[in-house]
User: Which sequence fits this backbone?
């Protein structure tokens, strides 16, 4: 489990970015696969989620997971929320204690957010589509409406795919350039290939929304030695599926 240097100073929350070590799954899912959407054995995924929960807080509620769809949609969990319901969205916000919020990734960017005065947390799944559609802006705006303040919001960008391993096609670039010519800073050409800097783009979205307290955990999920699940690496190895990394945040 990796913790953000900027978030771990706050005693009011627990959090962690987990790689693929320390679980019960086998084969291509070895070992801490936390993705119910994968083709892994369901009982192993449940065991893995229990292992993660135990590391965050034994006495906490079950980890709340979304059905992630690469959107700009989010949900807010209040005291009347039915935790048995699973929503299609890519971010979850709460002011409830002992409720771990989980985000699943396998190259996309996990973002954990905390307002240490309003005591509100958020977990965001930011793939390029969600970031492009404004998931970060939507979450920040909602948090501000709930009484958060820009100066008290802290964000941690978790492990994700690095630019050097994220090659894309020209139509991808064109889409970003049509939106804003300044987006060209997120692309680099090398050996007739174009590479996209997803974490830099995500960080720019946070800054655009006036968030300055940002911790970027610069670990590449594609690089095998870092022991993270990677959709792109699995595709390159011709695997028919891949495991998911989990990132968690909870108000104590």
Assistant:
């Amino acid at each position: 489990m990796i913790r953000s240097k900027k978030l771990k100073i706050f005693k009011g929350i627990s959090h962690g970015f987990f790689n693929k070590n320390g679980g019960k799954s086998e084969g291509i899912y070895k070992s801490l696969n936390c993705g119910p959407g994968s083709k892994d054995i369901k009982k192993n995924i449940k065991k893995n989620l229990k292992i993660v929960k135990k590391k965050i807080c034994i006495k906490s509620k079950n980890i709340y997971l979304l059905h992630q769809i690469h959107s700009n949609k989010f949900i807010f969990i209040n005291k009347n929320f039915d935790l048995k319901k699973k929503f299609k969205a890519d971010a979850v916000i709460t002011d409830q204690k002992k409720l771990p919020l989980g985000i699943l990734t396998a190259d996309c960017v996990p973002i954990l957010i905390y307002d240490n005065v309003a005591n509100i947390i958020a977990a965001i799944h930011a793939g390029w589509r969600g970031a492009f559609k404004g998931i970060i802006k939507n979450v920040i705006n909602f948090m501000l409406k709930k009484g958060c303040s820009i100066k008290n919001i802290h964000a941690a960008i978790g492990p994700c795919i690095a630019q050097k391993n994220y090659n894309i096609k020209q139509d991808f670039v064109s889409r970003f350039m049509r939106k804003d010519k300044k987006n060209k800073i997120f692309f680099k050409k090398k050996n007739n290939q174009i590479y996209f800097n997803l974490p830099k783009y995500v960080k720019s979205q946070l800054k655009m929304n006036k968030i300055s307290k940002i911790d970027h955990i610069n670990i590449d999920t594609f690089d095998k030695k870092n022991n993270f699940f990677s959709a792109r690496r699995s595709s390159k190895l011709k695997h028919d599926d891949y495991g998911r990394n989990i990132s968690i945040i909870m108000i104590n």
